[in-house]
Amino acid sequence: MTYEEYLDEVTTLITEKFGLSDAAAIKLVMEAQAADFFVQHDEVPTLRNHDQAELDATSIFNRKAR
Questions:
Q1: What pTM, to 2 d.p., does this model score?
Q2: Are 42 and 3 contacting, i.e. CB atoms less than 8 angstroms apart?
Q3: 55 CB contacts (<8 Å, ≥6 apart)?
Q4: Most buried residue among 7, 44, 61, 63 by CB atoms closer than 10 A?
């Protein structure tokens, strides 16, 4: 999937898994992107898959929950 599709997938998973609104999930993903969380995903296309998106969604949510 493209980088943009990957970010969309992570955002969708955050809303589905953690019950956040679309706006709140988008904000989390944008903050993670601004903090360079997704740099490797941009550079290594094989990291852009559903299993990795599941891991990243959980990681991003847990980082914010602290």
A1: 0.93
A2: yes
A3: none
A4: 7
pLDDT tens, position by position, 20-60: 999 999 999 999 999 999 999 889 999 999 999 999 999 99
Distance CA 26, CA 34 (A): 12
Could you tell me the two tokens for 32? 């993670």
DSSP-derived secondary structure for 1-66? --HHHHHHHHHHHHHHHH---HHHHHHHHHHHHHTTTTHHHHH-GGG-SHHHHHHHHHHHHHHHH-
Q: How far apart are CA 49 and CA 41, in angstroms?
A: 10
With beta carbons less than 8 A apart as the criterion, state whether 10 and 29 touch.
Answer: yes
